[in-house]
Design a protein that fits this description.
fumarase; about 190 residues; about 30% helix; globular; single chain
């Protein structure tokens, strides 16, 4: 199935999604990689607010390249998500609804996704220019000293994504290979 979603996201928006579904996401998406996640944890440890509203938010694990003239952003391909796994359950408990990246996640992250009614979506790795085409605007909102890892507020339209982890415990990294092998046996 394909779904069209707009941020901020609610549990009701995410509940129908199943691992393997496709999503066209529009609205505000925040960028953050591991250096920014570490700083977010420092803020939370001090009782200070995060640089953006976390409830219903989508975070894209990306360090975009500089924009070319006339473009909102440079290439914006996903970063390996496992680098954020140590920080993710805490953010999910605070209301983070959606993570966008690539690669497998730890069991702790998977359990937290289900517990919090969140999702993990895949952006197309190696297709940073394609992903950048969905970005309408880009603004650094925190930690410009981090360069490409600064937190950015993106406005996206029809950002093409695939559901990797769903709210029900579905995991495309488990179900996908099994479905592929079953289809090969059926067609042989």
């Amino acid at each position: 199935m394909q779904y069209v979603l707009k941020t901020p996201l609610s549990k009701q928006d995410l509940a129908p999604l199943k691992a393997g579904d496709t999503v066209l996401l529009s609205g505000v998406v925040y960028t953050a990689r591991d250096a920014a996640h570490a700083r977010m944890m420092e803020l939370l440890d001090k009782g200070e607010p995060l640089p953006f509203p976390i409830e219903g938010a989508a975070i894209y694990y990306v360090g975009p390249t500089p924009e070319r003239p006339g473009c909102a952003i440079g290439a914006a391909g996903p970063t390996t998500s496992g680098r954020m796994d140590a920080y993710t359950p805490r953010l999910l408990d605070l209301g983070l609804a959606c993570m966008i990246g690539k690669g497998k996640r730890t069991d702790a992250v998977k359990q937290s996704v289900v517990k919090n009614g969140a999702v993990y979506l895949a952006a197309i790795g190696g297709a940073g220019a394609l992903m950048a085409g969905s970005v309408q605007s880009c603004e650094i909102i925190a930690w410009p000293d981090l360069g490409c890892e600064a937190v950015r507020k993106l406005v996206v339209k029809d950002f093409p994504l695939t559901v990797l982890l769903d709210t029900h415990g579905g995991d495309l990294y488990r179900s996908g290979p099994a479905a592929y092998l079953a289809s090969r046996e059926h067609n042989a």
